[in-house]
Amino acid sequence: MGFAYVKIKVKKSTDSEEAIDEKFLVDSGVIYTVIPKEDLQKLGIIAHSEEEFELANGEFITRQVGDAFFEYRGKRGSAPVVFGEEGDSKLLGVLTLEALGFSLDPLRREIKPLRKRLA
After folding, report:
1. d(Cα 98, Cα 78) in Å, to the nearest integer?
2. How far is residue 83's CA from residue 62's CA, in Å, rounded to a whole number?
3. Are 37 and 84 in contact (CB under 8 A)?
4. Domain boundaries, position 34
5. φ, ψ at 44 (rounded to 5°)
6. What Å distances lie between residue 70 and 18, 26, 116, CA to CA?
7. Are 55 and 61 in contact (CB under 8 A)?
8. In CA terms, which of 60, 71, 102, 106 is 20 to 30 Å from 25?
């Protein structure tokens, strides 16, 4: 798996004025973005469901999930976000990267534009 760090803007929606600019660890093995619950609540993002997730050590945890709007390098998009609890790492998942049109090159540890295909 590859790792990189990026600074990305998170908001409730496209027209929200309140935003946070945070530095995230991008891990090519992580599907969902994890942001501390307190940060999401400050932005007015609410959970719409609760999901079970498996950790790298095989342990299972339950976390709330909502939707957030992201901006990075002039690209914008929305993706699911996990409400992180104490001890959870702040992570940027591949669903968010792909929603923005990017991917992680795990060998170079660089964020690159994603080739867009319809078929």
Report:
1. 10
2. 10
3. yes
4. 3-105
5. 85, 15
6. 12, 14, 19
7. yes
8. 60
Q: Would you say residue 114 lies in a domain?
A: no
Cα(104)–Cα(28) distance, integer angstroms: 6
Spatial separation of the C-alpha atoms in residues 111 and 114, rounded to whole Å: 9
Instruction: Kindly give the confidence (pLDDT) of every residue in the chain, 119 residues in length, as a single tens digit, with 9 standing for 90 and above.
Output: 567 899 999 999 999 999 999 999 998 788 999 999 999 999 999 999 999 999 889 999 999 999 999 999 999 999 999 999 999 999 999 999 999 999 988 788 889 998 877 77
Amino acid type, 82: V
Residue 119 lies in a domain: no
Half-sphere exposure of 37 (CA within 13 A, CB side): 10
> Within 13 Å and on the Cβ side, how many CA atoms surround 11?
14
Is the whole-model pTM more than 0.85?
yes
Instruction: Tally the domains of the chain.
Output: 1
Q: Is the dihedral of CA 73, 75, 105, 93 positive or negative?
A: positive
3-state secondary structure of 94: helix
